[in-house]
């Protein structure tokens, strides 16, 4: 199947119409200016013969193009493909976004995927025009820009938090990608942000987004101490690689306002990625709704409230345990959760890790499988293998866990098969669910 960036005519039309639906699907490199943009860039489009279309920001950077200062292509929503697919490239992209290359290197990425380094590099290059190191570098540059523009941290601390090995590499990368020094980027942004670990960010998404339904589910399921709905925002604790964090997520016109309090700023990109995954912000709602609206049973529901998302999770193991524990999840959290401090609200606990629950029923078998590595529900997990293992543990919950923890867009945790709604059965389930939960945050 032809990739979006390979369909030149379609890409040119998207750029000329400034179609934001394609942001993140491809990037436009302008041969005359050596700048790359998102399709919706507000500047006057270049001539078609001067456009080159690339599948990733990393590919554009590798080819020597700099990020546009107007449209900030590095801040585009992610490509929907990586959350819709279960193949090697999609799994690799989810792991890279979760920070695996920065923490474990390319060898660690390949080991998690069960392939050789050469196989991973070859497939990523073929589809994205960049290998894992280049993709991780582009991600570090984006994290650096966020910290430069939203905090007053010294540049040495920004470099470390963004994952750069040295201040020199940090400076060179920022200049190369953004055509500005870190100091100039901060001066241009007029940053007056905090010097602490508390950051205020905007999380972009593809419109439409039915935020009320999405946040209603999260509020209805909130686990005391771990999550809460406070003053119009969903707040929860995060278990991150370098320490705990707290996030507040608030729906706003055109974006999600996120406030992150992190123990260690090296976890910034991982935290952002997990929040985006929780809220399904990289989905392509127009593609989903267009297919589902062909069904007369769903068409009026979609017309009334388009842009339903699948509420997912920040931690696959946590969700699976909660799904099987049911009403006992709160007791497990209270008994085994790790304490956290929340000056801004009522959060007090990190949800316990599987290893703490191996003797607790009804989740003991699941906890042992997760703790021992027999079951993997992380960003790069193999969906088919995980389903098979889950079926042996609790067959009644396989589809629910596949939908929320694995992120399978075709999972269907309802009676019946829903075959006519494939490959978007998880979204059909959202349109069909009882709207009673939405009244909880009214």
Give the helices and strands, then pairings.
Blueprint: H1 8-16, E1 27-30, E2 35-37, E3 51-54, H2 57-62, E4 66-67, H3 81-84, H4 88-97, H5 100-113, H6 117-128, H7 132-150, H8 155-162, H9 167-178, H10 182-189, E5 198-203, H11 211-221, E6 227-230, E7 233-240, E8 243-252, E9 255-262, H12 268-279, H13 285-292, H14 299-304, H15 316-325, H16 329-336, E10 338-339, E11 349-350, H17 364-371, H18 383-393, H19 398-406, H20 425-432
Parallel strand pairs: 2-4
Antiparallel strand pairs: 1-2, 1-3, 5-9, 6-7, 7-8, 8-9, 10-11
Helix pairs in contact: 4-5, 7-8, 7-9, 7-10, 15-19, 18-19
Q: What does this entry look like structurally?
A:
The chain has 20 helices and 11 strands. The chain is of the alpha+beta class. The strands form 3 sheets. Strands 5-9-8-7-6 form a 5-stranded antiparallel β-sheet. The protein has a 4-stranded mixed β-sheet with strand order 3-1-2-4. Strand 6 and strand 7 (233-240) form a beta hairpin. Helix 4 packs antiparallel against helix 5 and helix 18 runs antiparallel to helix 19 (398-406). The longest helix has 19 residues, at 132-150. It starts with 7 loop residues before the first helix and ends in a 10-residue tail after the last helix.
């Amino acid at each position: 199947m032809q990739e979006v960036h390979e369909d030149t005519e379609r890409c040119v039309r998207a750029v000329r119409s400034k179609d934001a639906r394609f942001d993140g699907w491809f990037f436009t490199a302008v041969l005359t200016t050596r700048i790359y943009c998102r399709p919706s860039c507000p500047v006057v489009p270049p001539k078609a013969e001067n456009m080159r279309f690339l599948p990733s920001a990393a590919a554009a950077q590798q080819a020597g193009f700099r990020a546009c200062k107007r449209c900030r292509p590095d801040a585009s929503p992610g490509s929907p493909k990586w959350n819709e697919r279960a193949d090697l490239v999609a799994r690799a992209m989810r792991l890279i976004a979760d920070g695996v290359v920065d923490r474990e290197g390319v060898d660690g990425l390949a080991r998690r995927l069960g392939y050789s380094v050469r196989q991973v590099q070859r497939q990523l290059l073929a589809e994205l025009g960049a290998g894992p190191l280049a993709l991780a570098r582009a991600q570090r540059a984006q994290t650096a820009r966020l910290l430069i523009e939203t905090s007053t941290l010294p540049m040495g601390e920004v470099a470390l938090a963004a994952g750069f090995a040295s201040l020199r590499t940090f400076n060179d990368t920022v200049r190369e990608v953004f055509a500005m020094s870190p100091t100039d980027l901060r001066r241009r942004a007029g940053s007056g942000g905090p010097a602490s670990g508390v950051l205020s960010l905007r999380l972009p998404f593809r419109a439409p987004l039915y935020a009320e339904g999405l946040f209603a589910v999260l509020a209805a399921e909130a686990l005391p101490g771990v999550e809460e709905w406070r003053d119009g925002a969903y707040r929860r604790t995060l278990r991150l690689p370098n320490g705990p964090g707290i996030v507040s997520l608030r729906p706003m016109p055109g974006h999600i306002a996120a406030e992150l309090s992190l123990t260690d700023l090296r976890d910034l990109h991982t935290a952002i990625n997990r929040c985006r995954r929780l809220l399904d912000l990289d989905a392509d709602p127009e593609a989903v709704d267009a297919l589902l609206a062909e069904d007369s049973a769903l068409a009026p529901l979609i017309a009334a409230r388009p842009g339903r998302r699948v509420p997912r999770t920040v931690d696959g193991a946590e969700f699976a345990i909660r799904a099987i524990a049911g009403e006992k999840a709160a007791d497990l959290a209270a008994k085994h959760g790790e304490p956290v401090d929340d000056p801004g609200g009522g959060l007090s606990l990190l949800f316990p890790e599987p290893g703490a629950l191996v003797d607790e029923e009804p989740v003991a078998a699941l906890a042992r499988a997760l703790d021992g590595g027999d079951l993997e529900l992380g960003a790069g997990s193999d969906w088919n293998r995980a389903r098979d293992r889950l079926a042996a543990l609790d067959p009644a919950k396989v589809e629910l866990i596949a939908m929320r923890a694995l992120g399978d867009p075709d999972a269907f945790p309802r009676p019946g098969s829903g075959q006519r709604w494939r490959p978007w059965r998880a979204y059909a389930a959202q349109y069909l669910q009882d709207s009673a939960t939405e009244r909880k945050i009214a």
